[in-house]
Each structure stands twice: as C-alpha cells, then as structure tokens.
Amino acid sequence: MPSAAAPDPGAGAPAGADTAPPVADGAPPPVTDEAPLPVTDEAAVPLSSPGGPESPESPGGPAGPGPDAGPAEANSGAGPAEANSGAEPHVRVDAHALEGALLNLRNRIAAVPLLFEAPDVAEAKTERVKLLSQVEDYLLPRLRRSEAPILVSLVGSTGSGKSTLINSIVGMPVSATGVRRPTTNSPVLACHPDDVEWFAENNFLPSLPRVRQEGLARPGRDGLLVLAAAEDMPRGLALLDTPDIDSVVKAHHEFAYQFLDASDLWLFVTSASRYADAPVWQMLQHARDRDASLGIVLSRVPTGSRAELVGHFTAMLDANGISAPDRFVIPETRLAGGMLPPEAFGPVRAWLTDTARRDERRVAVLTQTMSGVLDTFRARVPALAVQAEVQLAVRARLRRQAEEPYRDALTEVARVTRDGSLLRGEVQARWQDFVVTGDLMRTLRSRKAPRQGKRARKRQAPERGAAMKTALRSALEGAVISGADRAAEDADSRWCTDAAGSAMLLAAEQARASGRKADWLFASAFGDGEGDVRELNLGKSAPDLPLRAARAVSAWQDHVMRLVQHAEQHKRSLSRAAALDGDTLALVTVLAILGENAVGSHAAAGLDDSDILTLPRRIVTAVLGDEPVHDMFQTARAELNERARLLLDEELRRFSEVIDGAGRCDEVAGVRLYQAGFMLEALQ
Ligand SMILES: Nc1nc2c(ncn2[C@@H]2O[C@H](COP(=O)(O)OP(=O)(O)OP(=O)(O)O)[C@@H](O)[C@H]2O)c(=O)[nH]1
Ligand SMILES: [Mg+2]
C-alpha cells in the first residue's frame, strides 16, 4: 500500500524529462528529491504514465530538440524537461509490499492453465511467458537490488552501428563489428569490472547462460550472454549490445525483445538507410506502449542530407507517438580503428554517464521503466485472466461433448429395458419354444417344493428355459454394449470435429505413443513383457466392455433371482402358496420387467394369452401378488439402471482421462489472477 499517497506536484517529472541531456542553466530541477529507489525500501512510482506525444511541448514536436539536434543540440535540449517537470506526481510505495504483490502475481500467472485450443490461446501463451519474464527478469531483480547498475540495451537495425557505438563508448572493442549481416548473435554486456559480479549472478535474466570474456567477443555463440569488463566504463552503468531486430534470424528478434524487457533504459539505434523499415517502428511502438525510458540514435547520417533525413525521421516519430526526448544524430564519419570519433559518440556517452551517476535521473529512469511495465499489467493481467476462464469453458464444452452421448445411452438403455424392445427376435423365438412346447406350463404345474438343493434344481431346469435365459442375457448385454458403442462413436466424432477436441486428441495420442515407446524401451532393456500396446481408440468401446457387461447382467439376474426368492418366501409364509421353480420364475420375472411398459400398451393390446409382452407379468402377479411385484420391479429396475450407469461411466472415464491428461485446470485460476492484479494496482 502507498505509505504516503499525497501527490507531490513538484516531484517526479517523467523520466523522459529527467533523462534529458544536461538541463540548461536556470532550468527547474526536473525530478523529485525523494530518496532514490536504490537507497530506500520505498520505490517512487508515478501515478500514471508520463506525458504522451500530445504534450504541447512534446519532445517529438517542434519545440523539442528532435533528431535535428545533433549531439550538441541534444545537449542543450532543456525544453522537454521544462515542459514536463512536475507534471506527474509520484506516490511512494512500500517496496516490500510491491515485491510480495509481484511474487503473488507471478505465481498466479504461472498457474493459469492454457491447456486447450482456443481462439487466442497461442497469443496468451506467448503473453504469459512475457509477463513472467518481465516480473522475474526485470521487476523482481530490480526491486530487490535497486542499487544495481543501470542496464541500457542498445537495440535496433542491423548494420546501424550498435556494436561500433558500444565499442567506442567502452573505449575498447568488446563486441564484434562487421560487414556480415547480422553480426552480433550473442548479446554482449559491457560494464565496469566492479559491476560485473551483479550480472554474473543469476538475478538478472536468470535463465540465460553467461560467459565472461577477455577481449573481443567471438561471434557464433548464440544464446549466451557475454560479460565484458572494461575499466573505462563508468561505474553503475552497463551497456548491452543486442542482436538486431530486423534480422532474417528470427531468434535475434525474439532475443532483442527479451532483453528490452529486462532493461532499465532502451537506446534505440537505427541508421539513415534503415529508419523507415517496418521493424524499427514495431520496436518503437513496443517501447511506447511499454512507456519505457527510451533514447534514440539516428546513425550514419550523411552530412549533405542531414536536415532532410532528420526532419523526416522526426515526423515519423511524431506520427507514431514516440515522445522520447533524448535523441542523438551520429553523422556518417570515417572510423578510426573501428571506433567512432569522440565528437560523434561523446554526447551519447555523456548522457548515459550522467544518467547513471545522478541519483535523481537514475531514479527517474528506473521509475519510468518499472511503472511502464506495471501500467501495462492493468490491461494485460485481466486479459490473461479472461483466457483462464475461456479455458474452463472449453474444458466444460469438451466434457459435455463426451457426457451427453453417454447420458443418452443410459436413457436409451432404460427405455429398451422397459418397453419390450428387448423381447423380440431371438428372445421372442426362445419364448415361443418355451411356451409352445409346454415347458413353461409344466414348470408352472410342478408344485413340489424342491428339496434337492440349488444344483439339483439347476439340472432339472428345462433346456429351453436355459436357451431362453441365454438369449435374454445377450439381449441385455447387447443393449448396454450397443448404447456404449454409439456413445463412443458420437463423443469421439464430436471431439474430432471440435478444434480443441482434435488438438487434445492429437496430444493424447502423441503422449501415449511416447509412453509406449518408453515402455517398449524399458521392456526390451529389462525383458519385462511387451508393455502397454493399447491404442487410444476412443471411437470404440473398451475391448473388455463385453466381459464387464456379461458380468453385470449376470449379477443383475442373480439379484432378480434373490428378489424373487425373497418375495416367494414371503408369499408362502402368508398364504402357504405352492413353491415354483425358482429359475423359471426369475426368468419370467425378468421378462415381465423388460416388458413392463409394453403391458397395456397399444403394441400389447389384442395379443394372445401366451404373448411374451403379457403372459410373464400375469404369471408373476398371479404367483407373487400385485403389490410385491410392483415393489420388486422397482427395486430390480433401479438395480439394472445402476449397473448400466456404472458400465457407461467406466466407458466415459476414458474420455475424462484424456481431458484430465491435458493438465491440471484450476477452477479459480482466473479469479485469483484478477485478485493478484488488483492487489498490485492498489499498491501503485
Ligand atoms: N564508416 C562508418 N562505418 C560504420 C559506422 N558505424 C558502423 N560502421 C560499419 O558498419 C558495419 C556495421 O556496424 P556494426 O557496428 O557491426 O553494426 P550493428 O548495428 O552492430 O550490426 P548487427 O550486429 O548486425 O546488428 C561495420 O563494418 C562497421 O565498421 C560509421 O559511423 N561510419
Ligand atoms: Mg552488432
């Protein structure tokens, strides 16, 4: 939280003004004299971004020095400092609180799940990496070690002379220059030997490997940060020569942006022949949007066309809203030993040295760049939080696409196991056999209580009854299996035609393939079987479904048998009714349950007395009584539906596993990220 929120109108002119070349005599001090960021635990952060290009005395406008100002003009460019000084109040914020809020934000950003394909997910992934690197590579190290040397990145067009300028400022060749384009492929950081430890430690760009160099950096070490210590460098200042921004080498371009995100001050260098190129303006607009402290060098300007070139460049800067007041022109000159003459680079060096040495300017630069980054979070963090919510919606959609077909399958199983649909075909044919041959009637007439026990009873059961039972069992299994097959096909095709679904399936297949390869390698190394050779194959039911369905149906039939026995015993104890063959009665009960809704229906009307849709119910009711049959049917049906549900759930789980396999999707990641953003904002 701000420890003192009272704005100080006289303090804290924007860094653009503060970092202007030495202010003309008599000009008001451009910056606050609050304790500088490096010294206290409190960081001065502007309430809002410093004045934009619309400022009437905008540095880019006619009143500013502009590139028209050569080094000498730039040095006398006090205009912007006067125009902006005191315009932007600062508040002092608690650096510890800010660090805590940033750490929290970093964790929340990292936790945002970007697992599923969605319209902007690729951009969101890039944005997440950028946000994390801005927090980890710049804001946190800078907050923790605010006294560390100020880091100036030279960035810009290839061949514009960045390396030449650095070597000239450093006073010795540290970065290779050359006619080969691009020349610099490893960033080279030059600083005073006393400062080199700070950059050798991994608190600046922690993920980048680094190497110390003696003498000139050799080209060809992409991806390494080369640390060059030079006695002539002013203390407290580090210059970073970065790969070009307009390179054919794409990595250079990304690299350059990464360095900018970790820099306190950007020195943008473009040449008379390249300043109009698109990458120049992309980069400058990026700097403008980030509101980073920015200086601009127009190099290799032929003396004859200087006014014309500088005028055009200034107009382009204005048109693009680039307000950097610190602009330098380096004329085309002869190099001496690869170095620029002192009058060409001197003003740039003086400006940089001054920025590093004068606390108020240093604070202003750090403040502007840090606030610039933090300001961008206001929109970028909620935008990422929106993506977290989009991800949840995509995941819910994928779940629905899989669940709906299985839910429909369950409804269908419930329907066909009630309306008599299963009592056709083979089942009906077996029933006819059973009835016509008189087996059923014989069984019904047999009133002797079986004394021989279950096994003997089974032996007695009529063969046709057994055939009937088999037909019934396979009809029930078939109902579940065909429902599951349809659901698998439907769910799979919904995923295949969904962008997120198909991408997820592809990733799951790849993960499975690499897992199989690892299994196979393990198996071939240790002779441990053949590994898991199953395909994902979601469009079909699991290969073991028929086995599981058979077990489930058999278990249900046993359950019905027990229900029937229970009802029968109860009935006998009440009315001393004769016992019936248990197997047959259970079989008939199953038929009656499966045709429950068909009884009395139009389909069943007018059927003869022996019809499969009517007779079983009549028999069961006659033997056990109306009410017990009703209760028993309900129990048996609930049990049947539950078993079917378990089977289908098991099938559905294969889909859920693919979704879960995509990664952990925190339901509240978006909300937490919003909160972390608000907490950070509250501190500014
Ligand atoms: N005559 C003259 N040559 C220059 C000047 N500045 C740079 N050069 C030459 O132009 C070529 C490119 O300069 P570098 O300093 O390597 O350019 P760079 O911006 O570092 O290029 P990349 O590393 O590819 O991004 C080299 O051969 C330099 O010697 C200058 O002001 N005058
Ligand atoms: Mg270079």
Give a description of the structure:
The chain has 684 residues and is α/β, with parallel strands linked by helices. The longest helix is centred in the middle third of the chain and has 58 residues, at 359-416. The chain has helices spanning 15-18, 71-75, 79-84, 95-110, 121-144, 162-170, 196-200, 250-261, 278-290, 306-319, 342-357, 359-416, 425-436, 439-445, 454-460, 463-496, 499-526, 545-575, 582-594, 615-624, 626-661, 669-683, and strands at 2-4, 42-46, 90-94, 150-156, 188-191, 210-213, 225-229, 237-241, 265-271, 293-301, 326-331. Among the domains are: 145-357, P-loop containing nucleotide triphosphate hydrolases (Rossmann fold, 3-Layer(aba) Sandwich), CATH 3.40.50; 401-505 and 535-661, no CATH class. The strands form two sheets. The chain has an eight-stranded mixed beta sheet with strand order 6-7-5-8-4-9-10-11, sandwiched between helices. Residues 158-164, 177-179, 181-184, 244, 300, 332-335, 338, 340 line the site of guanosine-5'-triphosphate.
